[in-house]
Design the sequence.
């Protein structure tokens, strides 16, 4: 389990446990003690197993108005190749996005200096970091520093960062211009035979929003300051082929990505409202939706009031194959 750690003494304890178990670079007492002392004041995540033992940690520090640095990260050798480092970084990246940072950077020994650090650099590259520059004098001429940077505003990174958020929202109104941007991303999605079977209703009037929320039982997204209601029409493209499901799915994904890109969070609520109790029909009645349309999804929109991080996912190699199974 990945845990966000608040207490400075717990941060110090965990970082000491991990750093003392890491390779010889951290056996230099001065370096180790500096990281232990400094990490107590930085945003800090730790992996803790089912028995409460810490297997790894990561902390960030602010290096500029738009940039955070992956200050130090360590995973016990016996915990390697279990996806722990990736899950720690996913939590840290989510935090940086949530706080509005544009970049994460990491400084490491230049590739080719030490074999162990070449492996580390490959790990950062696999996370999506790009080589930026070499600073020969940052450490010393024999061990030049390589800087890697990840943009948190790129489309590919937004895809990797986005995940469902089911927590509470801050009570801040979402500017209408942002809601327009999100909705436009939805209607710009591809549509089978360009039949444009997906329509949207943006709900940001407090009274109308309250009426919609009262129809959702059990309640979800009860604190969201805005919602986008997704509508679909079944129109055959040719013969008996209808692509309405594919159309609205593409529109929803576009909007979810736009929501994250603009600094908000959301969740794809479809099954909850289209189940046997037909909450979708009750929402349609509140919003005066024409009979030829079906309500298929609601997307809350707002700023997260709680910390969050990505769920664990299978590795790339478990789900992606080239050429044959």
Sequence:
């Amino acid at each position: 389990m990945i845990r966000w750690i608040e207490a400075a003494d717990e941060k110090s304890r965990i970082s000491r446990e991990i750093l003392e178990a890491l390779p010889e670079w951290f056996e230099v007492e001065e370096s180790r003690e500096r990281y232990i002392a400094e990490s107590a004041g930085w945003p800090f995540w730790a992996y803790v197993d089912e028995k409460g033992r810490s297997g790894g940690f990561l902390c960030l520090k602010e290096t500029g108005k738009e940039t955070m640095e992956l200050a130090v990260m360590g995973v016990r050798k016996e915990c390697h190749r279990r996806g722990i480092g990736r899950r720690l970084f996913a939590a840290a990246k989510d935090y940086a996005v949530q706080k509005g940072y544009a970049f994460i950077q990491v400084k490491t020994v230049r590739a080719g200096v030490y074999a162990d650090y070449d492996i580390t650099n490959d790990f950062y590259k696999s996370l999506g970091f790009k080589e930026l520059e070499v600073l020969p004098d940052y450490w010393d001429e024999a061990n030049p520093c390589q800087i890697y940077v990840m943009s948190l505003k790129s489309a590919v990174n937004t895809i990797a960062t986005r995940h469902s958020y089911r927590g509470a929202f801050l009570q801040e109104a979402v500017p209408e211009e942002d809601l327009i941007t999100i909705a436009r991303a939805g209607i710009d999605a591809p549509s089978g035979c360009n039949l444009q079977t997906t329509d949207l209703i943006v709900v940001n009037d407090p009274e109308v929003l309250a009426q919609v929320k009262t129809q959702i039982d059990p309640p979800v997204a009860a604190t969201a300051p805005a919602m986008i209601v997704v509508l679909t029409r079944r129109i055959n493209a040719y013969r008996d082929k209808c692509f309405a499901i594919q159309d609205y799915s593409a529109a929803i994904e576009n909007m979810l990505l736009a929501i994250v890109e603009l600094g908000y969070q959301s969740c794809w609520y479809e099954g909850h409202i289209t189940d046997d109790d037909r909450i979708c029909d009750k929402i349609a009645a509140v919003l005066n939706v024409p009979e030829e349309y079906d309500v298929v999804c609601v997307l809350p929109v707002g700023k997260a009031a709680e910390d969050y991080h990505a769920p664990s996912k299978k590795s790339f190699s478990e789900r992606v194959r080239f050429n044959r199974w």
User: Anything to note?
Assistant: Residues 2-161 form a domain with the Aminopeptidase fold (CATH 3.40.630.30). The chain has eleven helices and twelve strands. The first strand starts at residue 2 and ends at 5. The CA atoms of residues 111 and 118 lie 5 Å apart.
